[in-house]
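Quick entry between incubations.
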Amino acid sequence: MKPASFRYISATSLEHALSLKAEYGDDAKFLAGGQSLIPTMNFRLARPAILIDLNRIDGLGATRPCDGGGARVGALTRYRTLERDAGFAGMFPLIAEALPHIAHPQIRNRGTIGGNLSHADPASELPAVAVALGARFHVQSTKQQRWCDASNFFVGGLTTDLQSDEMLVEVELPAPKPRTGSCFMEIARRRGDFAIAGVAATMTLGERDECIHVRLVFCGVGETPADASSVAEILRGHAPTEQAIRDVAAAAQAMIDPSGSVHATADYQRHIAGVLTERALQTAYQRARHGH
Amino acid sequence: MDIDDHEITISVNGVRYQRRVESRMLLSDFLRHDLGLAGTHVGCEHGVCGACTVLLDGQPVRSCLMFAVQAEKHEISTVEGVAGGDGEYHPLQQAMHDHHGLQCGYCTPGILMTMTAFLEENRSPSEEEVREALSGNLCRCTGYQNIVDAVMAAAKRMRG
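Done. Structure below.
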C-alpha cells in the first residue's frame, strides 16, 4: 500500500526540528532512518500529519568519546556505521555482537540508533543491549534537556518516556570495566527476523575470577526489555559454576512473562530464554576470563 | 488537504533528473512511474522482500522505505545501470546467467544491487558471508543455491 498524505519538512538544525515538534506535538513524527516508521505508514497503521526529516541535520549522526571513557553515539548514527567502526566494536563487543541480528544489511544501512530506541519495539535487540550496558539517553526539547537511564526509558510496547515535544538526541555508553565479558544471543525463525527470544549478558570478574558484576536482559519476551539482572545476583562473589548458571536460568524463566505468538508459544519462548541464558552467561564468563 | 509537493534534483545511474514529487511518493514508485525505470521491482512494500533494493550513495537500501523527496541531492543506482555502457554484463550478471541464478527473475534486480555492492566491499567472501549478505532478499524460485554459486563465481572473476 501507499502512505496517506502528509506534510514533509526537512529540518535544517536540531533547534529547528525541536521547535517544529514543540509546535505540532503528536501530529508530527521525526523521520530518521524510517525503517520502522515507513512500513507502518505504508500499511496506514500510522498516519502522521507531518514528518520532520532529521537526515540533513549535521552532527546528529556523530560518535565521539566521552569523559572518563565510553562513547556518545548521536541519534542519527546508522547501524552500519557502528558495524564498520572497529574501534567501537572493540570497546562495545556486546553491541557489535547484536548488530548483525538487526534486520538485514539494507535496513542497517538506513536504520538509526536513536530511531530504533525511540520506536521501542518489544522484540528489538538494542533496547535490551542499552539496558544491559547501563546506557543513558540524552533527551532534548525546546524547553529543557535531561538524561534518562535506559532502564527507565522503555515504559511499554512501542512506548517510551519521551514527551510529545522531546527527542532522543544522544546515547551515552559507559566504558565496560576491565575483565568484563559479554554475550548477545537470540533465536529467530530466520536471519533478520524478529527474535522469539534474545538475551544480552555482561559479567565482570575480580582477581580470583569471582563474579563482581552481572547484567542479564532479554528482548522479545515482554512489552519492554526484561531486566533479569536481579536473579543473576546469586552468581556474585564466586566463580560461576555450571550449576549456579543453571539456577539463574531457571529463575529467569520464572521471572519473565512472554506473551506467545503465532510463531512461538509462551512456554517455548520461556524455554528458549532459559537455554540462551545458560549459553550467554557461560560465554560472557569465559570471555571475561580470557580477556575478550 | 492540499497536495504537499517538493522540487527535487536527484542523480540516477549518473543522469540528473529534476522533478516535482508529492511527499508521500516512495522512492520505488518514483523510479518506476516518474522516471520509467521499471527494473526496480516492488514486492512487499514493507522492507522484507528486498526486490526494490537500490543503491543510495553506493550502499544498498530498500527504495520502498524511503520517500523520493529524501533522495534530493543523493546518487541512486538501479539495475538499469549495472551493465557496462556498451551493454556488457557485469561479472555478477554473467555469473547469474551461467549458474542459472534466476528463474522468474522478479527478485533478481534487488539481488544484483545487494550483491554487486557486497562484492565491491568483499572480493573474497566465504559462502557463509554471501548467504548472510543475501539474507535480506527473498527468492521463491531458486532455493538460493545457484545464486550463492553465481556470487562466488563472480567474486572469483572480479579478483582476476
